[in-house]
Each structure stands twice: as C-alpha cells, then as structure tokens.
C-alpha cells in the first residue's frame, strides 16, 4: 500500500502534484473562468455575502489563515479566521450575510463540527472544504467543495493541506469572479497560473535531497524557529507544527515583523531559523524587510535556512542554507514553500528514530472536543 515508500507520509508528499491537479480538474475552463456550480450556493447569495468566517483546526487552520489573504485581496470582503475550538465559546457575531467556511480533511473533527453547527444555528451559510466524501461536516453544511487529495493515512497532513489551499484559492477567486471586483484581470491571470501550479510542486520535490541532508545534520538540536511574513507567516506556522508533531522538537513560527517585539531574544549561536521569503516581485517592501530580518538574526549567530524564490539574489549573502522554490504569484507561494518544510520535518523525525506515520499521542482524526 505504501507503493515502495518507507512511510505513508513520504508517499503522500510525493503525491502532491497529482492531488493539486486533481483538485483543480474540471473547475477551470480553457479561458481562465472558474465553474464551481457544484458549490450550489446561488451567485445572488454570494454577491450579498458581507463577511467570511473560516473555522478549522491544526493544519486546516493554517490553510484558512492563507485563505484570508486571498479572500480579502481578490474579493474585498472582510474575512476572519478562527480556531474551531474557540469559535462558539466567544459568542461570535454571525448573520444570514455571513459565509462560514469549515475546512477539514477528515470531515469528522468534532471542534470544527461544533463550530459549524453553531454557525448554522445563528443563520449563517456554511461551505465545507473537505477531503472525505459523505463525512459528517459536508453532510451538515449547506454546500461542499471537495478536495481530491485521495485518502491521507499519515497523521501529519501534507497533500490534504496543499489541496485545501487550492480549494481556498478557488473559493476566493470564484467569489471575486461572481462579485466582479476591480481585480478581474488579475483573477484571470492567477486562475491560469493556478492551472499550471502542479508542475511547480513537482519541481520542488525533485530538488529535496539537500533539505534531507540538512535535516539529518540537525537531528541533535532541541529548537528550530520559523519566520515568515504575509502568506509566509502561516507557512512558518505550518512548518513549526510539522516539526512538533513529527520530530517532537520545540518549534515555533513567528511573523517576521514581530521579531523585534520579543522573539529576537531567543536567537543564539547556531540556532536553526527557517525563513520563508516572499516573492521580491509584487510586494517588494515586505521582501526587503524580511531580508533585513535575516541579516539581523544572522548577525546574532542564527543558522539561517532560507526558502526563497528562484532568481532572488538579495538573500544569498545571508543564507547559510538556501532552498529554492519556483517563482509563483505572491498569494500562491505557500503551495511551493510548504513542501520543503514537510520534507524537512519528515526527515528529522526519521533521523531521530520517531514513528513517522503515527506520532505519539496523536490520532488522525480528532472526534472529541
Ligand atoms: O481532519 P481535519 O482537517 O479536520 O484535522 C484537523 C487537524 O486535526 C489536523 O490538521 C492536524 O493538525 C494534523 N495532524 C496536522 O498535521
């Protein structure tokens, strides 16, 4: 069943280009228009949506954090993202113009299910993004957009995450398309880029040997920090989560801009710090700021592991280890930037002798609150 791989996780990491392509299949036509009739929420209702609220847990929550950037940019509709376990306990403000998006690989996560039940009780419409046909979350939602990652067996979520991102981009772009924002041209371009993105994921997978080697060399470390900015921030959080659950190491993700507000005190000689660098094109101000963050932490002795787009030369002088990812539109970068972090965590777990597919204390789907 593992198709020659030692672990399901390795197989599932390798399946990501196909999972991404399958999730896009039939949803984009040749002219760059999205057809998401399957969502079954009438365009009229989508045009009236006043607020989007995303609820999810763990890795799916990180997909939601990235979705917020895409939704607010392309649709100009305010979007909140909340941990499903916190949602209903704070008496959230919801009404019939609220679109709640519940993201769940398994479709059985109790925290997410309780959040969506609460949302529906308040009159909100719920759209599920789910990988498991006929599971409880899509059954109890008003509409569903399935991810087509295929069964994910390893406890650590990999291919499901990438397909959740694709589904989130589709929802954001579709909402933008239906509502007709000033980003119409950009939306058409991004839809085309998205339709080619599985090739970029494949390209990343082909260049992962140095990342594996690096991971093995860090197996004795206690702590790894992850920094990112813009959509790179949730990617950093996801990299840290993978490392915690697989390698049982202390790992933390920060927004790079927060460094100076506290976390920089953690930097010490030879501490590995992974930095996810946004594209130098587009939001170049953010890019320049993160380059100076890398400079700052390196000056304090950190061992910098830099994930940066091909052709980004500004990072070269400050990177102890440089991992290249293909150039993508800014908002799509998480689809390529997350992959090296998955490989890194998986290899570190193996080097530390941990059970990769079944980390201690964890279950694949968490059906208790
Ligand atoms: O099945 P779900 O997507 O609802 O699961 C949510 C989380 O439990 C899940 O993503 C968890 O964080 C993973 N083990 C992370 O790798």
Automatic annotation (TrEMBL):
Main location as per UniProt: cytoplasm
GO MF annotation: an example: glutamine-fructose-6-phosphate transaminase (isomerizing) activity
Positions annotated as active site in the UniProt record: 364
This protein's record includes keyword Cell membrane: no
Reactions that this protein is recorded to catalyse: D-fructose 6-phosphate + L-glutamine = D-glucosamine 6-phosphate + L-glutamate
A GO CC term assigned to this protein in UniProt: cytosol
Origin: domain of life: Bacteria
Enzyme Commission code(s) on record: 2.6.1.16
Places the protein is found: Cytoplasm
Domain SIS span(s) in chain numbering: 41-181, 214-359
Enzyme type, top EC level: transferase
GO terms, biological process: carbohydrate metabolic process; fructose 6-phosphate metabolic process; protein N-linked glycosylation; UDP-N-acetylglucosamine metabolic process
Keywords: Aminotransferase, Cytoplasm, Glutamine amidotransferase, Repeat, Transferase
Record's subunit section: Homodimer.
Function: Catalyzes the first step in hexosamine metabolism, converting fructose-6P into glucosamine-6P using glutamine as a nitrogen source.
Protein name in UniProt: Glutamine--fructose-6-phosphate aminotransferase [isomerizing]
Gene that this sequence comes from: glmS
Residue range from the parent sequence: 247 to 615 of 615
């Amino acid at each position: 069943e593992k198709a020659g791989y030692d672990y399901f996780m390795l197989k599932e990491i390798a399946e990501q280009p196909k999972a991404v392509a399958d999730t896009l299949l039939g949803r984009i036509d040749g002219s760059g228009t999205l057809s998401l009739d399957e969502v079954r929420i009438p365009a009229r209702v989508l045009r009236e949506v006043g607020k989007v609220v995303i609820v999810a847990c763990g890795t799916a929550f990180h997909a939601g954090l990235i979705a917020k950037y895409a939704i607010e940019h392309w649709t100009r509709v305010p979007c909140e993202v909340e941990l499903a376990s916190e949602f209903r306990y704070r008496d959230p403000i919801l009404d019939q113009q609220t679109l709640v998006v519940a993201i769940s690989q398994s479709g059985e996560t109790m925290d997410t299910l309780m959040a969506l039940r609460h949302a529906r009780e308040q009159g909100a419409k719920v759209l599920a993004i789910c990988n498991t046909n006929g599971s409880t979350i899509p059954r109890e939602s008003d509409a569903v957009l399935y991810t087509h990652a295929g069964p994910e067996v390893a406890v650590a979520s990999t291919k499901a995450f990438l397909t959740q991102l694709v589904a989130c981009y589709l929802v954001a772009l579709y909402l933008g398309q239906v509502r007709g924002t000033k980003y119409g041209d950009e939306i058409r371009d991004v839809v085309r880029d998205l339709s080619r993105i599985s090739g970029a994921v494949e390209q990343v997978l082909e260049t992962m040997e140095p990342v594996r080697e690096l991971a093995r060399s860090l197996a004795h470390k206690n702590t790894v920090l992850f920094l990112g900015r813009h959509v790179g921030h949730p990617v950093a959080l996801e990299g840290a989560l993978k490392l915690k659950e697989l390698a049982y190491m202390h790992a933390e993700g920060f927004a790079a801009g927060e460094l100076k507000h506290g976390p920089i005190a953690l930097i010490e000689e030879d501490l590995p710090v992974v930095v996810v660098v946004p594209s130098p094109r587009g939001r170049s101000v953010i890019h320049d700021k993160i380059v100076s963050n890398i400079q700052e932490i390196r000056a304090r002795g950190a061992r910098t592991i830099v994930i940066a787009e091909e052709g980004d030369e500004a990072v070269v002088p400050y990177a102890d280890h440089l991992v290249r990812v293909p150039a993508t539109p800014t908002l799509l970068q998480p689809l390529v930037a997350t992959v090296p972090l998955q490989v890194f965590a998986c290899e570190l777990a193996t080097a530390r002798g941990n059970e990769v597919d079944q980390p201690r204390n964890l279950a694949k789907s968490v059906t208790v609150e």
